[in-house]
Design goal:
By secondary structure, the protein is mainly alpha-helical. Helix content is about 55%, strand content about 0%. The chain is rod-shaped.
Length: about 110
């Protein structure tokens, strides 16, 4: 009975060692070289990219989403007055970047004096 127990222990030990020493078939080889991932460019180099729209386009696209164009074009004001108006509209949810805001205010001040 002692021999049978000893043989069983040796077999279990051999199985454990063989299981621990084998590599997983899906394991990637370890290298010191960086991985290379091929991707397509996000923006084509040949397509022009508009940084900021002109004032008239901003007025037509951003201001009329809440009210008619007539409401804006019926107003007049100086640069500081248009700045206050545009800031108030931004506070109510108008979506303008800082650059777009500057272009729109200058357009309004030059066009609707």
């Amino acid at each position: 009975m002692k021999k049978l127990t000893m043989v069983g222990i040796v077999l279990m030990f051999a199985l454990i060692l063989s299981a621990c020493s084998s590599q997983s078939p899906t394991a990637a080889p370890v290298t010191n070289e960086p991985a290379v991932v091929e991707t397509e460019p996000l923006v084509s180099v040949t397509e022009p990219v508009s940084v900021t729209a002109d004032g008239k386009t901003l007025l037509e696209e951003r201001c009329v989403s809440c009210h008619g164009i007539e409401r804006t074009t019926s107003e007049t004001g100086s640069l500081s007055q248009w700045t206050r108006i545009v800031d108030r509209m931004i506070g109510k949810g108008a979506q303008l970047t800082d650059a777009e805001k500057a272009v729109l205010i200058q357009y309004l001040a030059d066009t609707y004096k």
